[in-house]
Structures are given as structure tokens and as C-alpha cells.
Amino acid sequence: MQELLKKFENKQPEITFEWSDSESEAEGWVVINSLRGGAAGGGTRMRKGLDKREVESLAKTMEVKFTVSGPAIGGAKSGINFDPNDPRKDEVLRRWYKAVIPLLKSYYGTGGDLNVDEIHEVIPITESYGLWHPQEGVVNGHYHATEPEKIRKIGQLRQGVSKVLEDPDFTPNGTKKYTVADMITGFGVAEAVKHYYTIWGGSIKGKRAVIQGWGNVGAAAACFLAVEGVKIVGIIDRDGGVINKEGYSLDEVRELFLNRNGNKLVAENQLSFEEINEKIWDLESEIFIPAASSRLITQDQAERMVNAGLEVISCGANVPFADPEIFFGPIGVWTDQRVSVIPDFIANCGMARVFAYLMTDNAEVTDKAIFTDVSKTIEKALLKVNSKNPGKVKLAESSFSIALAQLV
Fold first, then answer.
1. Are 206 and 225 in contact (CB under 8 A)?
2. 382 close to 181: Cβ distance less than 8 angstroms
3. How far is Cα 35 from Cα 13, in angstroms, rounded to an integer?
4. Strands (E), 295-391
5. What is the mean pLDDT of residues 167-175?
6. How many alpha carbons lie under 13 Å from residue 55 in its C-beta half-sphere?
């Protein structure tokens, strides 16, 4: 597996598009690892300090993810090195998308990612430049769709991704309306845990969970886990966090979801980041959901969680361990040898799967159909891993072996 991984990591990406903004310090890259199947896909992220290496590693991660979610295409990613809190963000995004529209028309499909919103930014901006949908490049490059097929597939994409959720099973209560794109990744991360206990044995009910990151992925995953009877005992966010050793009730978790300020945790008795960071890794818990930025989990944190009784990690963030390697460095390997690690390309494939599902012929565009399809996709991937490795450790290693056999 390590040999295959090295080979895949060290292969040069097929296409690297580099951009320097004419009116600000922003710079950006589209990295297309390969045009497997005639196209490539991967979201657009923005953060200060992002570099080409990060975009390249995420493009490779996407290629592995497509072995689970489908379609059988190459991995890609867009990254913009710019402060997303800067008031010029919208203008920068507009100039960025204007530059990359030819790729998006031909063979590259994108979506939202860290600090870039699918519904409110990617779709309206690309639409204003004449793109039918951010996945149009995949429809053209991979499916070679005829005009009627293209109209149908893009119609399903437009309707499905932005669909306002009506089924109470898939959205927290409250007056605010949420879309499929808001909830689906966190749903998949929680479903991965549910399927894990069903397949490998044990009951999810009454387990305790720690959540890292309170954006759409972490907060939604916490809600769906709470529905299954999981006790959320700790949440760590970028500015602080909360601990409740007895576990927050479903209503309290939903309240914390609804009270967010953007993607930030807002709670009474919130501890400072320093306080929460000191305490949370020693909390007794069986489930850990890393759902913040990439490469945050240190060796010390992993060891402390294992010592506190951790059983399973469902990776909501791409590449959550603080290793320099693209996929699987020493911290990831150490953790994988001690607890069940469900890798990102299975656990957080929800949005990629939604795109793939909505591009199938005559997809049923209902809340239940879309969410059930994601759940079944994750279950199928985990059953494959279990048939290769019924043990409770080295799940990530086994998952990579299955994926890389299709790519290298």
C-alpha cells in the first residue's frame, strides 16, 4: 500500500493553472491531477496562506474520493490565497471565476469548499459568466452529453444541490431554511459512524463524541449523531469551545447548530480556545469527528484521545492529521494502528456523491432519495473495507489499498 501511495503522491499533476489577481494580492491555482474519464472535479477554497502544494494534495485526495463517490473521473481542486474576511472577497472571486471559466466549460467541475459557499457564491458568479452549472465541465468532458441529456443532467444538478430541505429528518428545527449542500457532508460523516458500528459490531446509542469545528460539516454531523443517541460531550472551534461530560441533548445540539454566527460556535459558558484545547483531548469519548481545517491533529492529541478510550474517527476534514505527507504520514499511520479511522474520502464524500447521483439518468430529486443514496454509497464502501479487513484497526490503510488499486 505504501508503495502504491508513494507512486500516486509523486506523480506530477496533468494540469496546473496559475493565477495572479491584477487588483489585489490574491493568487490562485487550479490543479488537475488527471483527466481520468475525460474530466476532473473538486471544490474551490480560499484561505490566507494557502499554497500550490495544498491545492495539489487536495486534488489527489479528490481523485481517491471519486473511487468511492463516482463518477470515474480525475481529481482537481481550486485554491485562492486570500483572506476570506477581506471586504474585497467577492470581487476577487469574480475575477478568479472569469479566468477559469474555459476550464469549467470544458472538463473541470467545481463547487464550494473552505470559506467559499456553493449556493451563494460559486453558482451565481459562474452563472453570470454563462456557465449553466459549476459541474458543466464534467457533464461535457466525462459524459459527452447530447444537448437533451445535458439539459436534463444540469437541470437535476441545479434543482438538487440548491434544494431547500423539507423533510424534518434531514434538517434541524427552526425558521432558517437549509439546503442539501448545507447538510449533506455532515450527514455522511455521521452515517459513516452509524454504518461502522452496524458492520464492525457494537451499538452507536449512548456513545460519546467530540467534535472539532462547528461549520456546516461538524455541526450537521453532531445533529445527526445526536439523533442516533450519541452524546456530544465536547466541541472545539477556532475561537473556543464547550464541554459537557454528561452530553448535550438533541435539542441542545440543535440549538447550538442554529445559534451559529456564520460558521462559528456561539454558546453560553464558552471556554477560550486555550482552555478548551488543554482539556478536550482527555475527555472520555468513543467517537471523534475532525471537521475543521486540514492537518490539525497532532501526535500528542491523537495519543491523548486513544488513552481516553477513543474507538472511531470519522474524518469530516480532508487530511485531518498534522503530517507533511499528502495522505498518510506518521501520525495518521500511528492512529490507524490503534483505533478505527474512517478516511476522509469515504466519510466526507457526501457532496461529491450528490453531484454524481444528480448526473445519473432520471435521478429522483427528493430529500429522502438524495440522502439515502449518500448513506448507501458510504455503507457500500465500508462493507468493501470490512470484507478486506474485518479487524478494527488499519481501516484507513485497507481503504487506500482498495482505492489505489483502481488508480495506479
1. no
2. no
3. 10
4. 312-314, 340-342
5. 84
6. 27
290/296 Cα distance (integer angstroms): 9
pLDDT at 404: 93
Is the dihedral angle over the CA atoms 200, 206, 207, 213 positive or is it negative? positive
Question: Cell for 168?
Answer: 424534518
Over range 234-244, report the average pLDDT. 97
- Spatial distance between the Cα atoms of 57 and 381, rounded to a whole number of angstroms: 22
Residue with cell 430529500: 367
Q: How far is CA 288 from CA 16, 298, 336, 403, in A?
A: 35, 14, 13, 24
Q: Is the dihedral of CA 32, 35, 36, 39 positive or negative?
A: positive
Helix, strand, or coil (residue 243):
strand
What is the predicted pLDDT for the residue at 299? 98
Residue 325 pLDDT: 85
Half-sphere exposure of 285 (CA within 13 A, CB side): 28
Rounded CA separation 263/271 (Å): 17
What is d(CA 175, CA 193) in angstroms, rounded to the nearest whole number?
Answer: 29
Residue 40's identity, in one-letter code, is A
Burial of 391 (0-12, 13-18, 19+ CB in 10 A): exposed
User: Does the structure show a pLDDT above 80 at 127?
Assistant: yes
Radius of gyration of the chain (CA): 20
Element (H, E) at 240: strand 240-248
Q: Identify which of 384, 401, 357 has the alpha carbon closest to the alpha carbon of residue 163.
A: 357
The phi and psi torsions of 5 (rounded to 5 degrees) equal -60, -45
Does the structure show a pLDDT above 80 at 48?
A: yes
CA 23 to chain CA centroid, nearest Å: 31
How far is it, in rounded angstroms, from Cα 237 to Cα 5?
Answer: 32
Using the structure block, give the residue that is written with the C-alpha cell 461538524. 218
**What values do phi and psi take at 222, rounded to 5?**
-60, -45
> Hey, what's the torsion of the CAs at 382, 386, 388, 390, to 10 degrees?
160
Q: Side chain identity at 189, as an amino acid letter?
A: V
CA dihedral 161, 162, 166, 170 (to 10 degrees): 50
